[in-house]
Amino acid sequence: MHNWMTESIEIQIARQCAPVLAGVKPSNILILEDGNIAEITRMLDGTPVGCRLLSGGGGNSVWLLYRRESLEKILTDKPKMEFLRCFGYRYQDVEEALWLLGRRFQSYKQKSMEFPHEMGIFLGYPLGDVKGFIRHRGRDFLYCGYWKVYENEAEARKLFSVYTSVKQQMLRELYQGKHVWQMIPNHAAMAV
Fold first, then answer.
1. What is the mean pLDDT of residues 4-18?
2. What's the pLDDT at 73?
């Protein structure tokens, strides 16, 4: 059995967020032990990858690692904006949308609301899959990979394969002595 708690922060970040680091996914959740803020920000400093603490305390911190430009494309897409409005998202820019997401995630952590499943939009999941997950309450999906797929299974499988390949390559390079910041392309093209 693999114990992620004993791995270096860089290995944990690559294992959980390689597609974001590589520029093929807009964002990802990163869960680490509390107290790693300085190390995470140092690793990402000067790269196009940002981080936002969604929740901390109780032993673990939940972060959102994201590519601002990719996330901006998603959050300004009209159907996705309209969907997010149904959950109270009224925002002018990415930072405001992330703040609202953080507030909703904090409410979930404080047990005052259910998990904010609209987070899937921020994570780059297709709108149909996010809606399908909510409508079916996580059941009756076509396929389960990096998320539960309710539409376009073949397309999702191809994307999951890319994510897995990127993760494997990044982990190989880390084990060979590279650092996370060395593997983050500055202008990676992201297909949304």
1. 84
2. 97
CA 165/CA 30 separation, integer angstroms: 19
Residue 6 has what pLDDT?
Answer: 56
Round to whole Å and give the CA distance between 185 and 23: 7
Distances, alpha carbon 46 to alpha carbons 3, 42, 62, in Å: 30, 9, 22
Euclidean distance between CA atoms 91 and 86, whole angstroms: 13
Per-residue confidence (pLDDT) for residue 142, from 0 to 100: 98
Can you give the chain as a three-state secondary structure string?
A: CCCHHHCCHHHHHHHHHHHHHHCCCCEEEEEEECCCHHHHHHHHCCCCEEEEEEECCCCEEEEEEEEHHHHHHHHCCHHHHHHHHCCCCCCCCHHHHHHHHHHHHHHHHCCCCCCCCCHHHHCCCCHHHHHHHHHHCCCCCCEECCCEECCCHHHHHHHHHHHHHHHHHHHHHHHCCCCHHHHCCCCCCCCC
For residue 72, the Cα-to-chain-centroid distance in whole angstroms is 14
- Tens digits of per-residue pLDDT, 61-109? 999 999 999 999 999 999 999 999 999 999 999 999 999 999 999 999 9
